[in-house]
Amino acid sequence: MPLLTLKRCPFCGESELGSGWSSQDPYSCYRVRCSRCGTEGPAECEGSEAGSSWNQRAGGYDESLASAALKSAELAEIEEKKKQLRKDITEKTKALAELGDN
Ligand SMILES: [Zn+2]
């Protein structure tokens, strides 16, 4: 059996993909799962089929969509840093004001 190369996740572009048994559907039992966003491919009873089903579905992977998702993750990170900096500034301004009072 040739080793199947799995396509990147169609939603986040992740290339680290896991696979596992599906607990939800007792009739179809194996599926590929994205380790970053948790997207699951169609469930199949053969691991290799789960892989090719995933690839079929991932065929519509949209580079711009994925980079947009990455960008929004980066933006969220920047927003978080801004929040931290604002807090930092508030605290330092307060400390400075207290120093000025003395
Ligand atoms: Zn993903």
Q: Can you list the strand order of the major beta sheet?
A: 1-2
Number of strands: 2
Gyration radius, rounded: 23 Å
Mean pLDDT: 81
Gross geometry:
elongated
Proportion of beta-strand residues: 5-15%
Strand pairing plus helix content: what structural class? mainly alpha
Number of helices, counting only DSSP H or I runs of 4 residues or more: 2
In this entry the ligands are: zinc ion
Order of H and E elements: EEHH
State the major sheet: 2 strands, antiparallel
Distance between the termini: 79 Å
Oligomer: single chain
- Helical content band: 40-55%
Structure description:
- By secondary structure, the chain is mainly alpha-helical.
- The protein has 2 domains: 7-61, no CATH class; 63-102.
- 50% of the residues lie in helices and 10% in strands.
- The chain has helices at 47-58, 63-101, and strands at residues 17-21, 30-34.
- A two-stranded antiparallel sheet has the order 1-2.
- Strand 1 (17-21) and strand 2 (30-34) form a beta hairpin.
- The longest helix has 39 residues, at 63-101.
- The mean pLDDT is 81.
- Zinc ion is lined by residues 9, 11-12, 14, 34, 36-37, 39.
